[in-house]
Amino acid sequence: MKVIEAKNYADLSRKAANIISAQVILKPDAVLGLATGSTPVGTYKQLIEWYNKGDIDFSLTKTINLDEYVGLTPDNEQSYRYFMNHNLFDHINIDKKNTNVPNGTAPDMEAECLRYDALIKSLGGIDLQLLGIGHNGHIGFNEPGQAFEKTTHIVTLGESTIEANARFFGSKDEVPKQAITMGIKSIMQAKKLLLIANGRDKEDIVNKALYGAVTPAIPASILQIHPDLTVIYCYE
Ligand code: PGA
């Protein structure tokens, strides 16, 4: 595990974007596992800036996102598909056909989970997975207490996640109660993991996850045993 302290959020974003762009330069058809939330926004901005300068070419790159809310269509501004288009895909030369977010409105969500797992497999696995971390230690929408061996599945969101995400919605009641998420097993199978955490409020959970016991009570704690984990944090 490599742990890097960033000077501030801009520095964290640049460092994370450097690692992602190195991956794309070394392997132009890389499969990038991407994440939503407020933490990666700066990383995506930095990638867009370097793309505009001509430093990165995403024409062959494929992406696969961690999760999506159940019930939100791609044109819903709170959906993670909308987030990805708006914060990254619309601004770089990626082929949208090569971008993947779980379908939160699939008629059969169990079938959608199986489709997503098969998709990850057919892409040859994930080269580099970007991760945020929730205050309760969730990664993707893998909430505390779930089995580590899960692949893509449907989750009922925990109270702390609903509260944290209410800021993006009009009110807490509007936050969907369920999500579809890549499981811990799928995440752990990625060749490289990059966890980013920003803000004083993340310090406690990051320390527990990285240096405490490996337990399903803190889903991110399993990352300790991944052979290629990089963590970049800033607690300013
Ligand atoms: P945040 O979310 O980046 O908005 O803090 C992280 C997460 O919940 O995974």
Describe what this molecule looks like in 3D.
With 236 residues, the chain is α/β, with parallel strands linked by helices. It has a single domain, classed as Rossmann fold (3-Layer(aba) Sandwich). Helix content is 31%, strand content 18%. The chain is built from seven helices and ten strands. The strands form two sheets. Strands 1-10-9-6-2-3-5 form a seven-stranded parallel sheet, with helices on one face. Strands 4-8-7 form a three-stranded antiparallel sheet, with helices on one face. β9 (192-198), α7 and β10 form a beta-alpha-beta unit. The longest helix has 18 residues, at 9-26. The radius of gyration is 16 Å and the shape is globular. It binds 2-phosphoglycolic acid. 2-phosphoglycolic acid is lined by residues 37-39, 132-134.
